């Protein structure tokens, strides 16, 4: 079985991307290895650590800033084509901070995975860590899920739980969530690639 082709989308530091790259490096290959390879990394902005990580690993990159396009639809179409050019089996949003549009979901729905720093359906959106703290939640965590046309509403694949400590600030909590999140994402992507999966309604089964 050949390795599944991954396109990873990033907007920032790219530590989740790095965790995937490290896991693949440690066990390259298809069924006999990690099961997937990163064939390209895309971003919505230039000059970010996530892109540097890709370049250092010799992986092709592409950048689609929203402001370079006349409308959100045009941006979405360009992002779709730039991603599709790498013929991905799976697309992974690893800290990609833009909501993609209909075009992208029509093309990659059912094979587009996102990681979110909260226990969905609680605290969706761009500030999952801050919102959980502000709400006074006692536990939070991370969710790896398939992306649908809503914001963080797609079928859940796996979740990791993190207890919130008294007096902890957003940065410290996010860092502890990310430790769990990186392992969860690596585990999930590897299993999806090696074993295949079914999505029935909201239920995801890794075969
Ligand atoms: C991760 O915690 C990810 O869940 C979050 O951004 C971080 C990216 O970290 N994504 C969102 O909040 C999306 N709504 P990284 O760039 O170091 O991988």
Describe the structure.
Belongs to the GART family. (6R)-10-formyltetrahydrofolate binds at residues 72, 97-100, 114. The active site is at 116 (proton donor). Keywords: Purine biosynthesis, Transferase. The record marks 152 as: Raises pKa of active site His. This protein is of the alpha/beta class. The protein has one domain (4-197): Rossmann fold, CATH 3.40.50. The chain is 36% helix and 25% strand. It has six helices and nine strands. It has helices at 15-26, 49-56, 72-84, 102-108, 128-135, 170-195, and strands at residues 4-10, 36-43, 61-63, 90-93, 112-116, 139-146, 156-163, 197-200, 203-206. Strands 3-2-1-4-5-6-7 form a seven-stranded mixed β-sheet, with helices on both faces. Strand 2, helix 2 (49-56) and strand 3 (61-63) form a beta-alpha-beta unit. The radius of gyration is 16 Å and the shape is globular. The protein starts with a strand and ends with a strand. The mean pLDDT is 98. It binds glycinamide ribonucleotide. Glycinamide ribonucleotide binds next to helix 1, strand 5 and helix 6.
């Amino acid at each position: 079985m050949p390795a599944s082709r991954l396109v990873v989308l990033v907007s920032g530091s790219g530590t989740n991307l790095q965790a995937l790259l490290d896991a693949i490096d440690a066990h390259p290959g298809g069924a006999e290895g990690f099961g997937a390879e990163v064939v390209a990394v895309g971003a919505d902005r230039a000059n970010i650590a996530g892109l540097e990580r890709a370049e250092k690993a010799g992986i092709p990159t592409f950048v689609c800033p929203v402001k370079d396009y006349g409308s959100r639809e045009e941006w979405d179409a360009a992002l779709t084509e730039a991603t599709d050019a790498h013929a991905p089996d799976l697309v992974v949003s690893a800290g990609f901070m833009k909501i993609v549009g209909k075009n992208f979901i029509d093309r990659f729905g059912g094979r587009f995975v996102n990681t979110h720093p909260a226990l969905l359906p609680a605290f969706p959106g761009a500030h999952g860590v801050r919102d959980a703290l502000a709400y006074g939640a006692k536990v939070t965590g991370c969710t790896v899920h398939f992306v649908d046309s809503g914001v963080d509403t797609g079928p859940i694949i796996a979740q990791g739980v993190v207890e919130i400590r008294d007096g902890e600030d957003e940065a410290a909590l996010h860092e502890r969530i990310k430790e769990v999140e990186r392992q969860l994402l690596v585990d999930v992507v590897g299993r999806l690639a090696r074993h295949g999966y079914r999505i029935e309604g909201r239920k995801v089964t890794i075969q």
